[in-house]
């Protein structure tokens, strides 16, 4: 039967923003990279805030910083060992990313 009916998209809705190929890539891989979607200025602001969080200059309530400890011998305690920051909704600057119309 699957040869008669195309694979349904499970994680994306029909829209005018993404191509069929982009939707399929997201369906297959769980992410989609769209270059230059966010301005260089915003990216720099988000990078600076990420660095402040990694250096613990700011500690938004509830934020969780995930590290890859196997990289510690190579990078020490730098931001290079951080592989995920989650629960950042209390950090106004990082959360601003989620509210960008482009996103």
From TrEMBL:
<protein>
    <recommendedName>
        <fullName>phytanoyl-CoA dioxygenase</fullName>
        <ecNumber>1.14.11.18</ecNumber>
    </recommendedName>
</protein>
<dbReference type="Pfam" id="PF05721">
    <property type="entry name" value="PhyH"/>
</dbReference>
<comment type="similarity">
    <text>Belongs to the PhyH family.</text>
</comment>
<dbReference type="InterPro" id="IPR008775">
    <property type="entry name" value="Phytyl_CoA_dOase-like"/>
</dbReference>
<dbReference type="GO" id="GO:0001561">
    <property type="term" value="P:fatty acid alpha-oxidation"/>
</dbReference>
<dbReference type="InterPro" id="IPR047128">
    <property type="entry name" value="PhyH"/>
</dbReference>
<dbReference type="GO" id="GO:0048244">
    <property type="term" value="F:phytanoyl-CoA dioxygenase activity"/>
</dbReference>
């Amino acid at each position: 039967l699957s040869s008669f009916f195309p694979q349904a998209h499970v994680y994306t809705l029909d829209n005018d923003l993404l191509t069929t190929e982009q939707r399929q890539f997201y369906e297959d891989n769980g992410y989609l990279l769209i270059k230059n979607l966010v301005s260089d200025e915003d990216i720099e602001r988000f990078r600076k805030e990420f660095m402040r969080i990694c250096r613990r200059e700011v500690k938004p309530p509830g934020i969780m910083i995930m590290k890859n400890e196997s990289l510690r011998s190579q990078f020490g305690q730098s931001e290079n060992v951080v592989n995920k920051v989650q629960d950042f909704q209390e950090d106004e600057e990082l959360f601003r990313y989620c509210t960008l119309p482009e996103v």
